Amino acid sequence: PLPFILDTDPGIDDAVALAAAIFSPELELRLVTTVAGNVSVEKTTRNALQLLHFWQQDVPLAQGAATPLVRPLRDAAYVHGESGMEGYHFVAHDRLALEAPAFQAIYDCLTASEEPVTLVTIGPLTNIALLLTHYPDCISKIKRLVMMGGSAGRGNFTPNAEFNIAIDPEAAARVFRSGLEIVMCGLDVTNRAQLTPAYLAALATLNRTGAMLHALFSHYRSGSMATGLRMHDLCAIAFLVKPELFTLKSCFVAVETQGEYTAGTTVVDLDGRLDQPANAQVALDIDVPAFQAWVAQTLALAP
Ligand code: BDR
Ligand code: CA
User: Which stretches make up the Inosine/uridine-preferring nucleoside hydrolase domain (predicted)?
Assistant: First the structure.
């Protein structure tokens, strides 16, 4: 199985991504780290621990950055509810996060591995920027970074910027300049990666996991239960398991950090107009029916 680390800000679509991360037989989840994004880092950590407990998983979890590198946090409670995972009552447990902060735990996990490890980010890139700053030698230990973030077209937080990049543009800019091999699954594919109303309804009785996700989905404001819900973060996990579902283009990507109205925009140079070497593979198309079939197959494996 492919060893990887998941950096997340649960988040309702993050919860689905975590389910697939755990129950895909092709994957080996070695560490979960949390970051401030959809809600505060205390809440994203609490949510991630609740999910790990729900699935009886003992994968270690480390809490990460409480604020973006230089900006105050602007959250997405309007999408995911006040708790970040509104809609399901999780039982109490006594699981704790590791002592080490996320960037340190990631570095320790990378160093302990005999083979390079894949990093998957489905929240703002703050922890990864801190990792790169504290441990520049981490690059050789990372196989590649697969992110849900950015857009080659329009945004979903500001007119041009996608949420994960817009929340911490300075961190994202640092990551895109790092030399890491990057796969960017942005809104170009994730807006299309929807679950159908019929499948969403069927989830309620699929298994315990389906019932839990169904309850969360009734509070998730990324699409609607009646027309389909966008599974942004799940695309990053789908890419690990089924890269053939995605059409990628290698190009230069820069993150705007200065613009009065455009900070957090991923400038994706599809036509090579900036004459810069490519630094990312950008997902531009996804096989939606095949994605939906993979989701159904994977969530059926959950308890
Ligand atoms: C991203 O923003 C968050 O609200 C979602 O969890 C996803 O990571 C989509 O733009
Ligand atoms: Ca997320």
Answer: 5-292
